[in-house]
Structure of Carboxynorspermidine decarboxylase:
Amino acid sequence: MTELHTPYFLVDEERLVRNLEILKDVAQRSGAKILLAQKAFSMFACYPLLAQYLSGSTASGLYEARLGREHFPGEVHVFSPAYREDEFEALLEYADHFVFNSPRQLEKYALRAREAGKQVGLRVNPECSTQEGHAIYDPCAPGSRLGTTLANFNPDQLPLLDGLHFHTLCEQNSDDLETTLDAFEAKFGPYLKGLKWLNLGGGHHITRADYDRKRLIRLVRRVKDRYGVEVYLEPGEAVVLNAGFLVTSVLDTLHNGMDIAILDTSAACHMPDVLEMPYRPPLQNSGQPGEKPYTYRLGGPTCLAGDIIGDYSFDNPLHEGDRLIFEDMALYTMVKTNTFNGMPLPAIVWRDKDGNQRVVRQFGYEDFKGRLS
């Protein structure tokens, strides 16, 4: 790692395959089809590997659908809160399953999708919140724009549907899925009979050490046995959980009531979820503030005062040139990076199962300039 110019993302094949083996086992034991949610991870250089374990990919719009079709063998599913008329015909070339968000969108587009040989679904909102403290990630929060509630569901549209879809979880265990599934069945179960599939969405932390996979398998089998439908899962984070790193260097240290270190990576530009979630990313060989002898506030090099990654403690003082390695940096990082302040984007590095590293992609001035006019 010391030979590569920082900052850069590194994705580790051995760790990635470990997750994929778990997902493949769950799919085989439950009978579910598991798809990659590209919104969390879109490193298409490793799509051929992922396709050996997963049944396809999911997209949030035209570009992700095209990426999935061009680089990820298997099914391509797309969902959008509202489709654009000027993109829909192009989407018909790439997606196999279209999930609509409202009865009005279903009425507008379903027949065109059906005539093109596509499967059609409706996202429903079971109005069952299982998240705590993160309303921004809760599709069942009051006033949510995501999914059709029972009050707005139109049974007369059932002939247009091949399946139903709900997505209510975020980094959660299968007990919350069971709670949600119970609520879904109470409201929409009667409409599922006669359809072809049910998509349980994403947010399932299936590859996390404490995840109850036996419960998930039981729930999938319950749905399949009770309704005779295919079951889809579309995790994003679980595919690459703990399989990626962000390697950065210390540019400077200073003191203002506490020790501060300026890094060559930015929370705002390179790991926006640190500010949006918010959360404190894991950092190798560090501790909580005060746990180790030397505590530093780690910040980025942008002009944003709040470009703060977090407070960490270390065994030794930090110095210019020291390398720090943030963990679990494959998910919701590369897909969210930006060039605010003219910040360069981190390179993307692949480490194979033998420990060999290669730079998959580097970015420069033209990538920054190309987004502007």
Observations:
- The first strand starts at residue 8 and ends at 12.
